[in-house]
Each structure stands twice: as C-alpha cells, then as structure tokens.
Amino acid sequence: MRLIYTILISFLLLGFYSCNNSSYEATEDNSPAVAVKVNAAASQDDAGFLTASGIIEATNSANLSTRMMGHVDKVHVKVGQKVKKGQQLISINNADLSAKQAQARAGISEAQAAFNNAEKDYNRFQSLFDDNSATHKELDDMSAHYEMAKARLEGAKEMMNEVNSQFSYVNIVAPFDGVITSRTIETGDMANPGMPLISMEGEGSYEVMASVPESEIAKIKSGADVKVLVRSLQTEVSGKVTEVSSSARNTGGQYLVKITLDESDQNILSGMYATVQFPIESTKEATTILIPKSALVHRGELTGIYTVSQSNTAILRWLRLGRTYGDKVEVLSGLSADEVYVISAESKITNGTKLMVK
After folding, report:
1. Judgement on whether residues 87 and 195 belong to the same structural domain of the protein
2. Which residue segment(s) compose the domain that 330 sits in?
3. CA distance 50 to 325
4. Judgement on whether residues 212 and 342 belong to the same structural domain of the protein
5. What does pTM read for this prediction?
6. Cβ atoms 91, 74 nearer than 8 A
7. Measuring CA to CA, how many Å separate 289 from each of 90, 281, 282?
8. 3-class DSSP state of 27
9. What is the mean pLDDT of residues 17-22?
C-alpha cells in the first residue's frame, strides 16, 4: 500500500512541475520584446584624450593704478559699463602737479631767454673772430656759454615732458575697448601709488588656463585643436593650445596650459569653470570608452548598463566609471570597446528581458 501511495505522489508531482514548466515556457515564448535603441561603445579609434580643468579668462585684461598720490576727484565709470579706448575712467586731484607744471613752464621761459642771449653773443663773437677783432679764447668762452645755455633749455624742456607724462597717472583712461569688471576706489578716497584702482577686460576674446599634472603634460602639444566644455552653460566650444608651460616650480606641481577659445555666440564670461579635452595618441592598451550618462542604470551605490546578448536579451553589466566630460562618462572597467549597449528603451527592461533592436 505504501508503495502505491509513493508512486501516485510521484506522478502527481511530475505532472505539477510539467504544467508549471509548460506555463513558464509559454509565458517566456509569448512575452513581447521591448524595442530598444543601441549603440556601439564610443571608443576613440584614432586618438584618445585626457581632460583637465581650468578657468576662463579674458585675453585682454588690465588692473589700472596710478604712480601719483592724491585724492580721487571723480570715478567716471561703473562696474559692468562698456568703455572705449582712451575714455577717461578716474580723475585724481592734480593741484600739486599743476604747480609743478607752472614751475616747469617758467623754467623753460627763463632758459629760452638765456639761450637767445647766449646765441646772439656767440654769433657776434664769431663775426669778430672772423674779422680778427676777437681772440680765440674769447670765442671759446662764448661758445662754452652758448652750449651751457642750450643744455639748460633742453633740461627745462625735459622737465616739462616729465611733468606732462605724470598727468597720465592722474587722468586714468582705458587702454583698450572693453568692460569694467571691478573698482576699488570711490570719489574722495586717497589713491596711493601701485594700488589697484580699477580693472577691465576686453570682450569677445577668451582663453582657458588649465592645470595638467606632470604625468600627462608630455602628451600635450602646442597648436593642438581641443574641445572645451563650459560647465555652467553646458555647452562645448572649440579652441587651440597656444602655450604649454615647461615648469611647475611656482604652481604646486601642476603645469599650466593656455587654450585660446574660438569665437562663439555663447554667453561666455571670465571666471567660468571649464573642462578641456586634449587629444592624445591612443594605443590598444589604453582605449578610451565613452558612454552617455542617460544610458546608465543606478542601483543604490552601484552603476551599470544594459548590454545585448547574442540571443537579444538584456544583460545588466556593472561598471567602474572614470572622468566625466559633458553628457558622457568614461568607462574604466566592465565594458569592452566592441560591446553593444542599450541607449534607450520604449518601456522598462530588466535583466533577461527580450529586446528588439532598432
């Protein structure tokens, strides 16, 4: 009897599992495939790249100061104001300088009168000497007097030139067309020699000063075309490497690389942070793989991507990521350059979901 019950139970269990397997297989076979868009991993075939961060600066910039001490009579511009070359920006009280100018002018008049008299005496004694009415010594004395008067006149004129040149330090003007970026002085303040009073930058021409570590500086070549991502604008502009520093002595081990940006209609401003993508020669051992951020799958602290199997099913692959550049991210491990991954799907997919590749 026990044997009969055992046989019956075995047949029942076998039938139950058979039904379940049939139902499972039917479900698997009949489940609709999810339409997905795929793309080959974006590796750099002809060249790799390395990235560095930097700050955008105006190509033309100036911090204006004065060599004269005095009270500020008037500040003619405001921060953000556009100015033209030669436009007056700051006026400093020049009463002392005006007095020196008057003294220099009087000195010129005095020296000019003395020179005129010396010149007449010299010409007169030259005529007398030619007529044998004056001695050679008398002519030499008049010649020396004439040369001394001429030198005093030249000295007085140079003094006037010096005074006039100092007026450029009390009437500060714009050295080029641009925009005022800052000012540290107000009307009535005392301006001191060498103290920055006002700053301005030229418009439309910008450059990036990027810091590159010593392990990668040798890979960067002057004249190379680069791509620059302006982070705050989330836009990409082109540029060219114009300077590569050969020393990091004063920059904390980082080498400075200057990139001149091409003209762009983007609202780029000085001080914005940027990421520079430098092209470098790539090797098979160091192939760079970039994938779009939108294709990533996040599960807690893990990040992965769905790849496509040979049977067109989804396979979740966990990744180790590197540097970010714009809307793409570098894959350090977990994905090879020739693998196909899912960019987007028309509906939710999971590990093992059937896929219909578009």
Report:
1. yes
2. 32-47+287-357
3. 10
4. no
5. 0.55
6. yes
7. 55, 14, 12
8. helix
9. 44
